[in-house]
Design goal:
The chain has a single domain, classed as Dihydrodipicolinate Reductase, domain 2, CATH 3.30.360. It has four helices and eight strands, in the order H-E-H-E-E-E-E-E-E-E-H-H.
């Protein structure tokens, strides 16, 4: 439901459909936010999640901002059924911005979420010169209104189906 991510998905499909996906941040609540990144990765790859390797998770357990929960840092490495790969990394330290990196045939995209929102796009068409555009992600409260209206009016919405999401979440858990 984020226009920039829909554009990136189209770029991936228009250019061969294979991707490498990486997320990098500092203390970015990996236990919670990895679910969102996995959903985005499955959306981009248009393939079910096959496996996740958690050997890179740090042994230090952190307090969550939510009472009764914990967080962790480290790295998750994974694979889709079509053999596309991903890495999700949360380094320990002060909370920083989240960078989403997507590489596909002829395109390198860097999405900076958080305080300094931007999309950097390097493409073969532009001799891999950098193009910058703003990144906008609507508030969840507005998105909820949009998909509920779409469900009520059209019987569908832009969210992934339950079977796809639940399989990825089960593998992660």
């Amino acid at each position: 439901m984020t226009p920039v991510y829909n554009e990136i998905s189209k770029t991936i499909k228009d250019n061969g459909g294979r991707i490498y996906f990486s997320v990098v941040g500092e203390s970015c609540d990996l236990g919670c936010n990895a679910f969102h990144m996995l959903d985005l990765y499955v959306f981009f790859g248009n393939s079910p999640l096959k496996s996740i390797n958690t050997d890179g998770i740090d042994s230090n357990i952190l307090e969550s901002k939510r009472s009764g929960y914990v967080e962790f840092t480290g790295s998750l490495i994974g694979l889709l059924e079509n053999n596309d790969t991903f890495a999700i990394n949360s380094f320990p330290g002060e909370r920083g911005v989240l960078t989403v990196i997507t590489v596909t045939n002829g395109h390198r995209l860097f999405i900076q979420e958080g305080d300094s929102k931007a999309v950097l796009h390097l493409s073969k068409e532009n001799s891999f010169g950098m193009q910058q555009a703003p990144f906008f992600q609507d508030y969840q409260s507005n998105l909820t209104t949009q998909y509920l209206e779409s469900l009520l009016n059209d019987g569908s919405c832009d969210l992934p189906d339950f079977a796809t999401v639940s399989r990825a979440h089960e593998i992660f858990i």
